[in-house]
Amino acid sequence: MAIKDYLRERFFPHIWCPGCGHGIVLNSLLRTIEKLGMSKNEIVMVSGIGCSSRISGYVDFHTLHTIHGRALAFATGVKMSLPELNVIVPMGDGDALAIGGNHFIHAARRNIDLTAIIMNNRIYGMTGGQYSPLSGYGTMATTAPYTNIDHDFDIAELAMAAGATFVARSTTYHVQQLTKILKQAILHEGFSVVEVLSQCPTYFGRKNQMGSAADMMEYYKNNTTSIGSKAKKENPDLIERGVFVEKEMPEYCSEYDKIIERAMA
Amino acid sequence: MKRENIKFIQGNEACVEGALYAGLDFFAGYPITPSTEITELLSYRLPRKGGKFIQMEDEIASMSAIIGASLTGSKVMTATSGPGFSLMQEALGYAIMTEIPCVIVNVQRGGPSTGIPTHVSQGDVYQARWGTHGDHAIVTITASNHQDVFETTVDAFNISETYRTPVILLYDEVVGHTRERLIVPEQGELPLVERLRTSVREGVDYHPYLPREDGRLPMSDFGGVHRYNVTGLFHDMWGFPSDNPKIVHDLLRHLVDKIQNNVNQIARFKEYYLEDAECILISYGSSARSANHVVVSRRPRGERLGLLELQTLWPFPYDLVREKCANAKYVVVVEMNMGQILQEVRKAVDRPEKVFLANRIDGVFITPTDIRNILRVIQGKGV
Amino acid sequence: MAKPKLKEHVINREWCKGCGICVHFCPKDVLELDDADKVFAARRSDCICCKMCELRCPDLAIEIEIEEDGQ
User: Fold this and answer.
1) Judged by CB atoms within 8 Å, which residues 38-57 of C form the interface with A?
2) Across residues B45-73, what is the average pLDDT?
3) CATH 3.40.630.30 holds for B3-183
């Protein structure tokens, strides 16, 4: 596989559980990068803390494994000081939207050219299965033993409201769509958000009796639909997949370059 | 000296001048009294020399952003005060663990908590040392006047690049907001240390965390020819996570030893009349200005006072302090907190029972009169 | 373009964790897990080279090698 060239193979087999969706995201992401023909030296991957964020250790790019929730802030520093770099920021749902929620909002607001990949498995996996802001009402987790009373929210809506100029969602089942969306996201000059509905069969799956990894992917196959489809109109509970917004707005680093021009004049 | 090099400015601005002189490329900050002027001035000055400024959404993001920028090869700085400094601790620990050069300015105000934003204290000394979790070493430098603020700022960048460590500039509200003269030296007058970059060629294995024989760790910019991993986990010489006991032990020792073993190289201080001093005042930051005044005004009256003004607070120069105080009858530490450097001085000297504290903790700047009154009490003369 | 002709299911048994995703989603039921919980091509000739197993494998442990057809 040509994509193996992008791996730090000596660390394989990786630490993710059998059937973990994050491996599928890694798979799709590498195919995207291969399709784009990007050079390894131009890519910086910045991740936070959690199972999702371990992805950066497995890829042969410039990799920055930071602290919980702050990947986008580190990435902002990287990108702003060297805008030629292609900065990809994979994070977990808790990492990006709980502790990292504030940085998520502001990175989107600035429309800085980063590609945020939210590997949403609706749980804090690495610490043993606590609920995350994306777990959802009524689910079970180690810190919600009587069922979760927290409601989740729509990451795509949040991203759009905050100003992200590319927002999309896919799942670990829909790998071909995922690869296409990741390509668009990386090419997009501005803040891109790709939410990937992923599975944690070990904790979320078991606690909520969702079966095997394949069963959880079947769930994503059967409970998602294309944006604005007839199925969605008939069943509003379906989760929409696809590109929600893709628009051209001034990108933060180029805006700042204009500031420098003015200041130096 | 050129006319335009003479400035009448706040200490915060002197710090900005020093940072720009040292080659600051990237600043990320957040407004907080009494450091805001640094952030504002840099938003204006940095882009004028092609540098980059960003106001982040909070101090955590500011500290994180400068670390990211430093990895691409930039000289970086952030500035804050107590509450913001508290927020920065985790990311500061990350920079320590990953050995990434950066400068953090804390213009101290009254604390704890929101405290007293527009008034002075020196309450963050121990926080600078131990604010972030885990065993670690840190470099912390302060100054009492604007010329020293300028020079210690340049020095901070130099130390940061030399030892691949964050350096904290621990100023205070009085120094930050007082206006006095600064003479900006010409480029080339003060030495600048540039980042040591690896000479390992492309395609050859580069180890970001393997010290050279001289102890230094050559860096490689993100985006360059060497791809490696940076993580806050304990890591091997390639930067990959490890919980191997030998690796953990050796890395921790390295992080601490690289600073602690260089105490003498990092120590900055000024001394006044120490040779024959009976009573030595030890002070730092704006307190040292009042302490200095006491010494200078009492000397002509025959009182054998001396002043040891510390600029490097951490690593604390125990040997230096012991040596300088060896012949004194007693030592009085002058600071605006409840006795932080006091405790370090007590650890340093041969007779800790002879070390006293002259302090002020009410947000009001400690005056020479305050110090004189406390000296009289210590000397048994009452008020 | 000619239909791709299967050369081999290249399976990395060290990387395969036996999660069963490829087995479950194979449209032609080609794959199975053996006694060691590693995937193998039980019905090799039924494979249509859709590569969905390769695309969906979380461990990058299976690759569908296509016969070079001179195009």
Assistant:
1) 52, 54-57
2) 98
3) no
